[in-house]
Amino acid sequence: MVTVADIRAVALTLPRTTEHLIRDRVKFRVGQIVYAALSRDETVLGFGYPREEREALVASDPVKFAFPSQSDMRFQWVHASMAELDVEEMTELVIGAWVMCVPKKVIRARLGEDYI
């Protein structure tokens, strides 16, 4: 099971990331773009994910992954049960969400040329 401390340990190492507490929810963002957020009870991790790929992700493991609320379907966003995630998978999801909102030169500097 992944904890808030695990997510924080990954997210805060990523360049340009800031942590905010907004309406009792921990959110990680780059500038004004939120790329990862926790539910109020800290059992669900919401994260940025390509809109065209999220249906396949949710279908791959519906216990672990879920669509956001209907009003949030317009965003590139997916939810994951923190109880079902391991640290390695969470790390991959958080970094993937971060990659969606930073310039390529920042990605190259942090993750190397091969990542892009």
Describe what this molecule looks like in 3D:
It contains four helices and six strands. It has helices spanning 4-11, 54-60, 87-99, 104-111, and strands at residues 17-22, 25-30, 33-38, 44-48, 65-66, 77-81. A six-stranded antiparallel sheet has the order 1-2-3-4-6-5, with helices on one face. Helix 1 (4-11) packs across helix 3 (87-99). The termini are far apart. Keywords: DNA-binding. This is MmcQ/YjbR family DNA-binding protein. One of its GO terms (molecular function) is DNA binding.
Notable features of this structure?
alpha+beta; 6-stranded antiparallel sheet; 6 strands; 31% helix; globular; YjbR/MT2646/Rv2570-like; MmcQ/YjbR family DNA-binding protein
Quick structural overview:
The chain has helices at residues 4-11, 54-60, 87-99, 104-111; strands at 17-22, 25-30, 33-38, 44-48, 65-66, 77-81. With 116 residues, the chain is of the alpha+beta class.
Q: Order of strands side by side in the largest beta sheet?
A: 1-2-3-4-6-5
Please indicate the percent range of residues in DSSP E strands (runs of 2 or more): 25-35%
- Rounded radius of gyration (Å): 13 Å
Proportion of helical residues: 25-40%
Shape, per Cα inertia axes? globular
Q: Distance N terminus to C terminus?
A: 29 Å
Structural class: alpha+beta
